[in-house]
């Protein structure tokens, strides 16, 4: 359920601080420590699942809740003009923290040209 070496499990357990924006029994959402956008939130399950390629049917409920939460949080955080959701999976997916998480980027896009 929890991996003692996992940084996001430590955040779930309150052993590492975070700027929390949402919490319930299954999910936690907090600001990314190195934001790539004006609003950059991570939505994670409290249970330790390393990556999206390791989910199964028993995870269906909180997986759905992650997607439902993204637009609610963006609205609460004042994002009115759209946002981007990203789940990096595995080495070729650019994943660095091996506890499943969804990035939600809001505000003007830093990657947009012009
Ligand atoms: P990944 O590349 O695995 O999809 O993204 C991991 C993200 O976690 C990165 O954007 C990184 O800035 C963020 N991150 C890593 N460690 C911490 C931490 O201790 N606290 C917070 N709030 N974000 C973290
Ligand atoms: Zn973990």
From TrEMBL:
Residues forming the motif Histidine triad motif are 99-103
Please name the GO terms that the record assigns under molecular function.
catalytic activity
What the entry lists under Pfam families is as follows:
HIT
What residue stretches are annotated with the HIT domain? 7-114
Q: Name the residues annotated as catalytic in the UniProt entry.
A: 101
Q: Which InterPro entries match?
A: Histidine_triad_CS, Histidine_triad_HIT, HIT-like, HIT-like_sf
The protein's name in its UniProt record: Histidine triad nucleotide-binding protein
